[in-house]
Amino acid sequence: MISIYTMCIDKLYNEYKEYALKHYKRHSLGSVHVAFIIKHKKIIAVAANKVGSRSNGSGYSAKSLHAEKAVVKALGDMSQLRGATLIVIRVMKGTQEINYSAPCHSCQCFLDKAQREWGLRRVIHS
Predict the structure, then answer these.
(1) What are the tens digits of pLDDT across the range 14-51?
(2) Angstrom distances, CA of residue 90 to CA of 45, 56, 76
(3) Which end of the chain is more exposed for a tag (fewer CB within 10 A), N or C?
(4) Domain boundaries, position 77
C-alpha cells in the first residue's frame, strides 16, 4: 500500500519536475534539493539549493544556499510559516529519480527555530 507521504512526494515531484531539472542543469552538483512550502493545500513558495555567497545575499554560507533556507528566503514573510508544511525532495541528476534527503546540522537548527519561533507546523524530507 502506498503511503500518503509517498503520494505527496510523488505528486510534488511530478508537478515540479521541470522546475527541479531546470535548477540542476545550472550547476554540476550530483543532485538538486527542491523545497516547497505548503499552506492551506496551496504551494506558497518553491526554491532549490544553489551556489551562493554572502556578497550576493544568501547570508547563510560562503559556498551554497540550501533549499530549506532558500525557500524561506523566497517566501519573504516569516509570518506565513505559521501552520505551513515544508517539504524537501532530492532529485538525482541523470536518472531524475527521487532520493533520500536529510537536513545538514545548520539547516536542522534553522528548521527547529522556524518551528519553535515562527510556527512552521511540519517538515518532510524525501
Answers:
(1) 766 666 666 555 555 667 888 889 898 788 998 888 77
(2) 17, 24, 23
(3) N
(4) 4-125
